[in-house]
Design a protein that fits this description.
single chain, 227 residues, mainly alpha, Arc Repressor Mutant, subunit A, Four Helix Bundle (Hemerythrin (Met), subunit A), 2 domains, three-stranded antiparallel β-sheet, 9 helices, 72% helix, globular
């Protein structure tokens, strides 16, 4: 792993989990002291994060952690539904035995991790397995561009979803298992309409849950500028 990649992952992770909150200035000297990485790799990492809208760059002011806006979450969610509905339809049509096996294995891995005792460090393993499952659903779509957009939009919504995982309860654990199992069942049964319906409902339910967290100020980033 290069120093730039190490810096990118570290800063991205701290932004997602809220250690670097929205609107905070990202001074290179502070980041150097925080991560023990030089200016050149840090600049490369920040440019990459800017391209993904994790940070913004203003003339004479430098880099700042981007705001979290419910309007952006809604836009990203609706775009995911449009993109992934088409990709999922293609995957169901084209997918073979290997694709089905990947869905089954990633679903089981997600369920096992969700059921384990939960703490701050486990958030990332849950998130990694959650990502693997959703990627597996679309992996047989035979569209490299669709998968690139999937990764981009998944990354955008990850910042909003992590606070939900940090406040996870037994109820949300049960919902995570049930929702993903239902989606997998519909996909493996090759029911295109039901698969798209369940996937769309899953994303809209997550959006609603995040909005409720913001409105009740359970999220660390809830505030006047979150809507």
């Amino acid at each position: 792993m290069t120093l730039a990649e190490k810096a990118y992952r570290a800063i991205r992770r701290d932004i997602i989990q809220g250690s670097l909150p929205p609107n905070i200035r990202l001074r290179l000297t502070d980041l150097r002291d925080r991560y023990g990485i030089g200016f050149s790799p840090l600049r490369e990492a920040l440019n990459r994060l800017q391209s993904q809208n994790f940070v913004t760059l203003e003339p004479l002011k430098g880099y700042t952690v981007a705001e979290l806006l419910l309007s952006e979450l809604k836009d990203a969610t609706n775009t995911r539904i449009l993109l992934e509905s088409e990709a999922l339809q293609r995957a169901i049509t084209l997918g073979g035995d290997d694709w089905e096996s990947e869905i089954v294995s990633t679903l089981q891995a997600l369920k096992l991790q969700v059921e384990r005792p939960f703490n701050g460090d486990k958030i990332w393993e849950v998130e990694n397995r959650h990502h693997a499952f959703h990627r597996a659903l679309l992996s047989a779509s035979d569209s490299r561009i669709s998968m690139e957009f999937f990764e981009c939009l998944y990354s955008k919504t990850e910042r909003y979803r992590i606070p939900i995982l940090q406040g996870r309860t037994d109820r949300t654990t049960a919902e995570v298992k049930a929702e993903h199992a239902s989606i997998a069942d519909a996909v493996l049964n090759r029911d295109i309409d039901q698969s798209i319906k369940l996937l769309s409902a899953h994303y809209k339910r997550t959006e609603k849950l995040i909005s409720q967290y913001v409105q009740t100020e359970k999220c660390a980033w809830a505030g006047k500028r979150s809507s």
